[in-house]
Design a protein that fits this description.
Pathway: Protein modification; protein ubiquitination
Family: Belongs to the APC5 family.
Strand order of the largest sheet: 1-2
Distance between the termini: 71 Å
Shape: elongated
Strand content: under 5%
Domain Anaphase-promoting complex subunit 5 N-terminal: 30-161
Helix content: over 70%
Number of helices: 37
Radius of gyration: 35 Å
Domain Anaphase-promoting complex subunit: 270-369, 468-510, 608-665
Subcellular location: Cytoplasm, Cytoskeleton, Spindle; Nucleus
Amino acid sequence: MASVHESLYFNPMMTNGVVHANVFGIKDWVTPYKISVLVLLDEMTISKRMTLLERRRLNKLILPLQQGPDLTLRHFLKTVEECSAETAFAVKLRLHMMVVGELKDMESFFDTLPNPFSDAESEASKTSVVGLFMRHMLLAYNKLSFSQVYKLYTALQRYYDDCLGSQPGPPTAPPVDADMELSEMELTSTEDGAEGKMDKEEPDAGPMQYSELLDEAPRRCPLSQKQAEYFLARQAYLLKNDENKALKPAALQEELNNMLKFNPDFAEAHYLSYLNSMRVQDVFISTHSLLHYFDRLILTGGDGKSNGDEGYGRSLRYAALNLAALHCRFGHYQQAELALQEAIRIAQESNDHVCLQHCLSWLYTLEQMKGSDSSVLTEDSVKMAAHFGLPYLASLGIQSLVQQGATGGKAANMLMDALKDTDILHWKHSLSELIDISLAQTTSIWRMYGKSTMALQCAQVLLNMNSLEQVDFGVQQNNTEAFAVVLCHLAELHAEQGLFGASSEILKHLKERFPPHTQHAKLWMLCDLKIQFERAMNDGKYHLAEPHVAAIAALDQMEGLYRKGLVMKAQNQTTDAYRVLQRLQLLCEKTKCTEMIIRVMLTTAELHWESSGFSTALPLLLQALVLARQHHLQALASETILHLAFSQLMLGVPEQALNILHEAMEPILAHGALLDKGRALLLVAKCQMAVSGGREDRRTGLEQAVQTLDEAAAYFSRMGCKDRLRDTHYLQARLHHALGHTAQRNECALLFRMVDQELPPARANLANRL
């Protein structure tokens, strides 16, 4: 949109027939495309042969056509043709007659348009969408000079010729479908039945989605104010709810740059540029756009009062608050703290309690990101938000408290009670976004506690829940971060149960819903890499797992270090693995990541096993068990018990090992992964073999061990864990040999040999591995 003084002297778009009518007080343009829309509206008003279904489809198309950017004539006619072929032909014919005629034909068209003030019952009445659009176009057209009208007419000719080409005669009429021809008698006699039928047929026979054409439409002229507002609102809505359907970052930035070229003071365009830059983590452009947004906002609005609810003061304090949020997202904690202090100072001067509550919310968020204890600040924020009637901030505070409680070792019943209270608040105020976040967080908490069944149920609740928000722009409301988190949990849970086909289907769906350029794509990228890494490690193909370590580290530093240590341990690089694990443990203690600390302790204990230091590993394992039980991490506690039982077995007390194994078997078999189930049963079989060694009923003990090994082999086979399967077949062959089962021994020996030929040589003694 050009400025006023430019329009008075020279309009750069006049060569394309675009008239900037804002000079005369109307914030709209007259373009050849809008003349085509006027022809369509006029045809809809005078047409008597249009069916109810066609009219309904065209009525749904009117508002997007008016508010959206200009389309080429080919796209425009194609969109109309999807709704009504006869109407599209009539529009094309009238445009052809106008183009091949003279200037007076266009003048006559504007003179014969329905007057919005003439008939209140008409579709083009002054209070209707059609009437307002016609009125704006008529006023804009009537203000044009003769030279501008001539340029508009020549632009209309080029608009027609460029899209359809010069035709020697009028366009040919489309064939009439006899099945679609309805007489007036049929319409009047079966009106109710026809409406019911239309409701059923419309989803299948609907027109092409306008959003698809809108995204492909070329921007050949600057947008009017209404078109720009519609474009910005649509893209902002898509970025929040369904980023996949929004324009790609580069394309959206190009559109915004073109928009700002004609109106550099368009504040909303600067803010959308800020949101778009945040998608690609561009700190320079995002900061630049955010500052320009508030500069323009201050210049264009308010009365200049520094201490009022409106004006410079309000814009300044929210500018500082948004700048603090920007620095928080990029990890610039010192700059974020300075910006927050500035926002708090201005808000206190103006007595703005709402802004102060937002500042307090970001303050405890900043403390959390820095690794400090922010529970007191969070509780104060929840109390004040409830006092001032801000349910959104109060719910976010409670969610943050629940997250801190989960990482701090709070009992599950306390956390679930708190989440239940927040859910009541969400449903009371219809906070759909927070309902999704609450369910996603509940899924994550259950999974952290090792309750995979409960995690699956919560994930299914979220995936099958309908949104409370009104669906607009043809958007699926479930393309948010909460759904990405839940789907990643589902993919990992299916992979843990050996259902790699289902897991790959979920990941494929994630890739389609969240393409790589979207801001939540890193969630499924990390999930996919972790699953591939685990499969390679389970197969004993460590050379395939090693390349995934660098990719995982790029997305998550701690996960990358942990898996680097696992690969080094598997490749017998004990010293380097120990060094990496110690570095990771220091990092985890600084960030208070208890889960990773326990995993590091377990892996370090396995390193001690490599040098037969089973007694040295016991203090580490006991410390890990205490941490797991303090934080109610059942899955990690069960895995720690397995390590303790194995250490006791190797120290020569298999009876004690078998006793403590019974404590871990129930949660592992109920909620554990297939690999954990197989490892637990394999360890039980080893304990049974050791216990039965000196007893008279040795044969009975060995037979029980064989049955246990059969169950373990079934789990390893379903998981595709060939490395563990090789160990299991070896023990099965030894047991069958001791029992005198020659046929079974030979079968197990054959299976062992087949698996052993597919894998590299065993890296260590079987006795030193769980």
